[in-house]
């Protein structure tokens, strides 16, 4: 009688342990949150940008490699700029469901820094001419850096085509929006180094302007941000 009771007691304990294990697993499966990835996923169908991957065996790490198809140190030309513009439009279209599409196409041209300065841009790496629907990119920058420049100038092009009076917008307002657009493209291309420069930029025009739009997006959403981008003319910081 005692032996049989001992066996039943052991069986009961084993059954109880199995039940506890099952309940623990069920609770873990339902209540433990899935880890959120730190890097934003690329939209479906979006591949890494063209001509930006290092060539096989390259160890220059962006310090002067000029292999034809290497993106780490090669300089840009018209063909590369056109590819980056296509990539920028593709990323923004798929990410924002067409809300950042242009009303009419623009072209891009790689020019010397001296030519950019003559065009009125001063010491800049990119410039957008709305009269010609043409963006200029310095041919003195690397392919990796050019993506952010093209995306930034695309932001200007979009705002010129959608804002009723883009020439009335303040520099802080228009540059901040263009930097926000560039940040969207760079993060989805996986270029987190360049995106981090935008996010941490201490410049009172570019950096503060970007952070104002980023805060607007966080607090009110993308659609509210785009509504502001095509209606307002300036940014008013709260004192």
Description:
- By secondary structure, the chain is mainly alpha-helical.
- It has a domain of 152 residues.
- The chain contains 8 helices and 3 strands.
- The chain has a 3-stranded mixed β-sheet with strand order 1-3-2.
- A hairpin with a 4-residue loop joins strand 2 and strand 3.
Provide a count of the helices.
8
Multimeric state: single chain
Biggest β-sheet description = 3 strands, mixed
| Spatial order of strands in the largest sheet | 1-3-2
What's the N-to-C terminus distance? 85 Å
Secondary structure elements and pairings:
Elements: H1 2-31, H2 78-95, E1 107-111, H3 113-121, E2 126-129, E3 134-138, H4 143-162, H5 171-189, H6 192-200, H7 206-220, H8 222-229
Parallel strand pairs: 1-3
Antiparallel strand pairs: 2-3
Helix pairs in contact: 2-4, 4-5, 5-6, 5-7, 7-8
């Amino acid at each position: 009688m005692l032996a049989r009771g001992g066996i039943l007691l052991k069986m009961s304990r084993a059954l109880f342990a199995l039940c506890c294990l099952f309940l623990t697993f069920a609770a873990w499966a339902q209540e433990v949150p899935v880890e959120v990835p730190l890097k934003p996923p690329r939209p479906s169908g979006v591949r890494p940008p063209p001509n930006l991957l290092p060539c096989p065996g390259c160890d220059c790490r962006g310090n002067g490699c000029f292999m034809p198809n290497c993106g780490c140190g090669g300089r840009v030309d018209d063909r590369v700029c056109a590819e980056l513009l296509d990539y920028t439009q593709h990323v923004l279209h798929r990410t924002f469901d067409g809300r950042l599409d242009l009303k009419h196409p623009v072209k891009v041209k790689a020019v010397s820094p001296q030519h950019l300065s003559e065009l009125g841009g001063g010491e800049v790496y990119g410039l957008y001419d709305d009269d010609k629907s043409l963006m200029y990119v310095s041919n003195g920058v690397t392919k990796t850096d050019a993506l952010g420049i093209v995306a930034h100038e695309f932001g200007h092009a979009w705002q010129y085509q959608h804002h009723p009076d883009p020439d009335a917008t303040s520099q802080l307002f228009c540059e901040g929006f263009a930097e926000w657009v560039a940040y969207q493209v760079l993060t989805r291309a996986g270029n987190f180094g360049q995106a981090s420069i935008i996010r941490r930029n201490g410049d009172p025009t570019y950096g503060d302007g970007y952070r104002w739009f980023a805060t607007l997006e966080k607090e009110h959403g993308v659609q509210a941000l785009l509504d502001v981008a095509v209606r307002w003319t300036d940014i008013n910081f709260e004192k």
